[in-house]
Amino acid sequence: MPMMRIFLLLVLLLSGCEHTVWNSPYPAGVSRANILYSSFEERPKHLDPALSYSSNETEIISQIYEPPLQYHYLKRPYTLIPQTLTAMPSVRYLDAAGKVLSNDAPAQNIAQSVYELHLRPGIYYQPHPAFARTASGQLRYANLKAKDWEHIAAWRDFKQMGTRELVAADYVYQIKRLASPQLNSPIFGVMAGYIVGLQDYNRMLTQQLQLLPAGAYLDLTRYPLSGVELVDRYTYRIHLHGKYPQFSYWLAMPFFAPIPPEVDEFYGQPGMTTHNFTLDWHPVGTGPYQLTVNDPNQQMVLARNPNYHGEAYPREGDAGDAAAGLLRDAGKAMPFIDAEVFSLEKESIPYWNKFLQGYYDLSGISSDSFDQAVQINAQGEPELTDAMRAQGMSLVTAVTASNRYMGFNMQDSVVGGLSDRARKLRQAIAIAVDYEEFIAIFANGRGIPAQGPIPPGIFGYQDGLAGMNPVVYQNVNGKITRRPIADAQRLLVEAGYPNGRDAKTGAPLVLYFDTAASGPDAKARLDWMVKQFAKLNIQLVIRGTDYNRFQDKMRRGNAQIFEWGWNADYPDPENFLFLLYGANSKVGHNGENAANYQNPDFDALFDEMKYLDNTPARQVIINQMLAVVREDSPWLFGYFPKAFSLRQAWVAPTKPNVIANNTLKYRKIDPELRHQLREQWNQPVLMPFIWLILVMVVLIWPAVWAWRRHERSAAK
Amino acid sequence: MIGYLLRRLRDAIPILLGVNLLTFVLFFVVNTPDDMARMHLGTKHVTEQAIKQWKVEHGYDLPLFYNATQSNVAALTETVFFNKSLRMFALDFGASDDGRDIAHEIKTRAGPSLAIALPVFVLGLLVNVSFALMMVFFRATYLDRLGVVLSVILMSISGLFYIIAGQFLLAKLWRWLPISGFAPGIDAWRFVLLPVLISVVGGLGSGTRWYRSIFLEEIAKTMSALHEPRACQSRAYYFAMCCRMA
Fold first, then answer.
1. What is the dihedral of CA B209, B213, B218, B220, to 10 degrees?
2. Residues 6+ apart with CB under 8 A from A406
3. Do the chains contact at B167 and A353, CB–CB below 8 Å?
4. Is the dihedral of CA A38, A44, A49, A52 positive or negative?
5. What's A365's DSSP letter?
6. What pLDDT shows up at residue B25?
């Protein structure tokens, strides 16, 4: 039968490949390779360390670029350690006259802080054409002419690569780039307030640029920046206004990674951007990995940097790390994995199914697949379903360093202000909106109700009853329990709105919830929110709008109640408490205090707290601040989202780290086990194919038979 | 014929201009460049200065339609409308917000799109026409009726369902093909096959019915034109006619 022959041919064709499985999305021949597979949903916009600020971008560039500091992989609370430095930066404090002060000098006397950073010699950049030199020592690709471009169409046409040692001048150069008007770094506004001379530097560059034609390359090495001095080949100093202890955390972010000036010069040549050769797409770093493939329509590949200086896996960790198998590789040379392949995967369902087939190594859990993967056991703890356990997967949970809250616009005439009436109204609402229920319904239990603005894992957060918000919760037999709705109703009476009506005018209390959310999911959430307010007989009106209008309302202070959130820049309570600092309000200051909360007591305590080290004294001040803000209730503190992720059997255990991103080097997989399990899980099922053909034959055969008989009888 | 084509081309010009103007108004008047800058700069630490710099760097600081600071032609060309919108007529699409050349993007993405669209077209035509021919050939038998019923059923299922069902059956349950992805070169067929099969099956109902109606109508016309006595109709002649039309 010809059908059968085609079928056999198909089988032969498919098995002719090296795959014994047919559905592998990866090329034949890499099934046993030491490669980690993951995906990207959206093309990362910026891979330039001066620009990138989104998590999908830092996930990639943190493996490539090395800022001077990094976080210790295992120690909690998060601890900074040197990455390319010989030791932690030394800090000196100077007074207005330039005299060196002692380290415990009061903050108001400090005019400048000077950070001195000393690099380790012998660190080299990844191979890159910008470093390539001719026999005579000239940069090979520095002055490309029109005729050179005839031979260069794709990146691989740069035949010659080179490298160079990392020097302190590269770090200085990158700090200058933060001020460049051509780049527009997202942290320039913040850093201009701290780094000496950065604001003036930006102004000066803007003037210089006006003299040049549009898009021209501006060589920043020609313009000195007063606040950053180069001491010697391996040493540089950064001058800050006043005291800013949190600056060390910024030094662990890619914004302060080194950029060699010749790389900028290379990409600054005419013709580069039209060929898509930019630093945004071809990063150049000293880190363990380099980006070898960057096709945002299909795939990105991080492969080992052959020039990597090497680093040993940490030898010590927290209690319990050894038992969790996290110290098995102590002292071994990192990185362990040869490459990480990111494939474009726009939809969550294909990602999830490929993960189940073993083609991805790690996965988050979307709400679609939550019930398939996780069940809540009798103790209320999440655990894997039997099907997941049968595949050998493990569940990793971590509370993220972020919060999701509901804010009141403190400039609003009804819900805002520090008057007793408005405060009690807010407190009543804080009790009524049941975030425990919210987490259960809308987050599949992935979150913990917040008692304040500071999430766990950050200094200042206190566990258990010590950290309870007494305005909204109470201690019932040693357990933190939300206050009953009667308490909220009583507060509402005291606020002058008995049963949701204004005691004087009798008019019903109507509040407005401003949101840019839309779609069926948001609808369910908003309906739920309306119900929470209805418990107090308050009418909540949803004012839906598009994202731009919503942002505009927030900036002008026209919103009344809104939802907002913050992801930590660094693990310090200052990074969360500043969201409530008066001088940082959105209206008027364009800051991050979205509720426009301003309480002089809180602000004074904040000014004191931000200069302190993580000592018990700091905790005392933080507790005072929390007491003030809980009483005022400018926010319903909402919840801290919890990240759930799944790990395949062949992926070595890792410690969840919600702050650091340069974690690829610590990862390890067992490619042989992966290969075996993939083969086992993906054998094709052939019976349906045979059935399909049989059904077709059965259907058509009688007709063909009838026609043949007819033809034969007609021919006679 | 040439006159008709020229006329159509001439009529396209005002339409393109209108679309261009309308999208410009939507993008630059309804949403101002300030909104655009804010979208791109993200949500953290965005200052007025950053917004201004972003606009200057991307050329959105110019006036929308008329630049009073310039003279003569430059007053019209040194504007957002000329630089961002009119230039597209010269196929100069500029760079996307992440700095990639848009013309280059179109070029690289056309390949994989065609790798799916062309087989879908050819295979779809082949399958639809053969099915329709078969139904016409076995006209008024159970196969014809069954075919029509099946086509109507296929037509009333949403396209999304075919995608989900195709992925579920072929890729997840039976593990014949990769669920998603793409590879350049020869290996591409493994990735292209699933979407092609899904598209062909998805278009089967309407396609088959469409060609069946056309064939039946054409056959009826030819028959009456030939004034052929009905008795002479043989299946073989009928088949030949069907084939000729196909």
1. 130
2. A433, A561, A562, A563, A564, A635, A636, A638
3. yes
4. negative
5. -
6. 86
How many Å lie between the alpha carbon of A412 and the closest alpha carbon of chain B? 23
Asked if A289 contacts A277 with a C-beta cutoff of 8 angstroms, the reply is no
Element (H, E) at A703: helix A687-715
Q: Which of B109, B174, B236 sits opposite A684 (nearest CB)?
A: B174
Give mean pLDDT, residues A670-675: 96
Q: What is the pLDDT of residues B6-24, one digit of tens each?
A: 999 999 999 989 998 898 8
Q: Spell out which residues of chain B touch residue A710, defining contact as CB-CB under 8 Å.
A: 235
Asked if A473 contacts A483 with a C-beta cutoff of 8 angstroms, the reply is yes
Give the sheet arrangement for strand A100-101, strand by strand: A100-101, A90-94, A112-118, A235-241, A228-232
Q: What is the pLDDT of residue B231?
A: 44
Compute φ and ψ for A630, nearest 5 degrees. -70, -40
Alpha carbon distances (Å) from A714 to A582, A623, B143: 99, 101, 21
- Set of chain B residues whose Cβ sits within 8 Å of the Cβ of A184: 41, 50, 53-54, 57
Which amino acid is it at A448? I
The closest alpha carbon to B36, from B20, B59, B18, belongs to B59
Q: Pick the residue of A37, A60, A184, A699 with the most B CBs within 10 A to test the interface with B by mutation.
A: A184
The token duo for A111 is 């005019």
Q: Are strands A510-515 and A539-544 parallel, antiparallel or unpaired?
A: parallel
Cβ burial of B224 (10 Å; 0-12, 13-18, 19+) is: exposed
3-state secondary structure of A384: strand
Determine the Cα–Cα distance for residues A399 and A643; give it in Å rounded to an integer.
Answer: 6
Mean pLDDT, chain A, rounded, equals 91
Nearest CB neighbour to B57, from listed A184, A187, A552: A184
Distance of residue A421 Cα from the nearest chain B Cα, in angstroms: 33
Q: Which of A23, A186, A345 sits opposite B175 (nearest CB)?
A: A23
Amino acid at A401: A
3-state secondary structure string across A35-65: EEEEEECCCCCCCCCCCCCCHHHHHHHCCCC
Which range has the worst mean pLDDT, B35-44, B80-89, B100-109, B153-162?
Answer: B35-44
Find the mean pLDDT for residues A279-286. 93
Q: Which of A20, A23, A187, A590 to mutate to test the interface with B (most CBs of B within 10 A)?
A: A23
Identity of residue A699: L
* HEC sequence for A95-106: CCCCCEECCCCC
Residue among B78, B100, B144, B198 with most chain A CBs within 10 A, to mutate: B100
Distance from CA of A320 to the nearest CA of B (A): 36
Mean pLDDT on A628-634: 96
> Which residue bears the tokens 């007074």?
A95
| Cβ contacts of A564 within 8 Å, gap of 6 or more | A404, A405, A406, A407, A594, A595
pLDDT over threshold 80, residue A141: yes
Give which of B125, B148, B126, B150 is closest to B136, Cα–Cα: B148
> pLDDT, tens digit, for every residue of B176-233?
999 988 888 888 888 999 999 999 999 999 999 999 999 999 888 877 766 555 544 5
Tokens of A151: 């031979």
> CA nearest B196: which of B187, B204, B205?
B204
Count of CB pairs separated by less than 8 Å, A with B: 134
Instruction: Name which of B108, B109, B181 is nearest A25 (Cβ-Cβ).
Output: B181
Residue B246 reports pLDDT greater than 70: no
Other beta carbons within 10 angstroms of residue A597's beta carbon come to: 26
Please give the Cα distance from A690 to A378 (Å, whole number): 46
Complex ipTM over 0.85 = no
